[in-house]
Write a structure and sequence with these properties.
- The termini are far apart.
- The strands form three sheets. Strands 5, 6, 7, 8, 9, 10, 13 and 14 form an eight-stranded mixed β-sheet that branches. The protein has a four-stranded antiparallel β-sheet with strand order 2-3-1-4.
- It has eleven helices and 14 strands.
- 29% of the residues lie in helices and 22% in strands.
- The chain folds into two domains: 62 residues, Alpha-Beta Plaits (2-Layer Sandwich); 210 residues, Vaccinia Virus protein VP39 (Rossmann fold), CATH 3.40.50.
- Helix 9 crosses helix 10.
- Strand 6, helix 7 and strand 7 form a beta-alpha-beta unit.
- By secondary structure, the protein is α/β, with parallel strands linked by helices.
């Protein structure tokens, strides 16, 4: 069982939140995992090293458990006890050298589903601080062109640092609204959209107080426009992955359903991963979505002891 975060027993979820999420999942399990420590995880950066070498370097002091859906990913825990137990994974020399990236296990899924190839032209529309960008670059083996865009300058600064540390050399960082991309063509597009973040409560407890029932509806408008723009610059036959770290149907299935209804040249594809997943939402609060939603990936924190995540894979025909 996960270890509860101290002093969270008195945190209260809003009544409307509890009612809404009780209709979507086991609310008690959701609250239990959302108020528990998130397991630390890393992704080996194959631009600089390989999995075996990193395992050899750190397995003496650190316990590594493979992440089933990512061959470069591991949950990591120090073998020490009491005061000798370390939690500062970011201070490890291997991290500073860019041999691995500290990345939440569920966050590794979108680039895996995107399947970028060396030599392609790829757009990461909402890139900073760079966990998925550096993962895409390593799958591209630094060949081709990767456009990493974000709208916030301070986040781009973090992106630049992570690109340098990880030895990424095929990436151009841009700063603008994601909806402004036009007159370009990409083989693959990742839209890891800004969202209400209800899947990330366990690393951002303030989300409990920030949540309101209209937030998801408001953000969905931006999310639809980002995906629409991504599809407009996607080559025929290309792949677009839409992902969020929220569990709000308004921001997940509703957005994908809207895209399918308004883009006849787009189809949803199955996502096949070695992972425990929950049924996507096809009906909620009087709204009915296409049965195609069952091809999407909806992960609750209690499914795999990770963050909550939603991923959809779209193909432009």
């Amino acid at each position: 069982m996960p270890t509860q975060i101290p002093r969270t027993a008195d945190l209260e979820f809003k009544e409307k939140f509890v009612k809404r999420y009780s209709a979507l999942t086991d609310i008690d399990k959701f609250k239990e995992y959302s108020l528990s420590y998130l397991r630390k995880s890393i992704r080996v950066n194959t631009l600089k090293t390989n999995v075996n070498d990193v395992v050899k370097r750190i397995s003496g002091e650190w316990k590594l458990d493979p992440i089933p859906w990512c061959k470069e990913g591991f949950w990591i825990e120090h073998k020490g006890e009491g005061e000798e137990k370390r939690w500062d994974v970011g201070n490890m020399i291997e991290h500073m050298l860019g041999y691995f990236y500290i990345q939440e296990a569920a966050s590794m899924i979108p680039p895996i589903v995107l399947e970028p190839k060396p030599g392609e032209k790829v757009l990461d529309m909402c890139a900073a601080p760079g966990s998925k960008t550096t993962q895409i670059a390593q799958y591209m083996k630094n060949k081709g062109v990767l456009i990493a865009n974000d709208v916030t300058g301070i986040r781009l600064a973090a992106l630049g640092i992570n690109l340098q540390r990880c030895g990424v050399m095929n990436t151009i960082a841009t700063r603008m609204q994601g909806t402004r991309f036009r007159n370009m063509e990409f083989d693959r597009v990742l839209v890891d959209a800004p969202c209400s973040g209800t899947g990330t409560i366990r690393k951002s407890l303030k989300t409990i107080n920030m949540w309101n029932p209209n937030l998801g509806k408001h953000l969905a408008s931006t999310q639809r426009q980002l995906v629409k723009t991504g599809l407009n610059v996607l080559k025929p036959g290309g792949t677009l992955v839409y992902s969020t770290c929220t569990l709000e149907p308004d921001e997940d299935e509703a957005v994908v359903d809207w895209i399918l209804k308004h883009h006849e040249d787009v189809k949803l594809e199955n996502i096949k991963l070695e992972i425990k997943k929950s049924e996507p939402v096809v009906e909620f609060e009087g709204k009915t979505y296409s049965e195609e939603m069952k091809k999407c990936l909806r992960i609750w924190p209690q499914d795999n002891d990770t963050e909550g995540f939603f991923v959809a894979k779209l193909r432009k025909t």
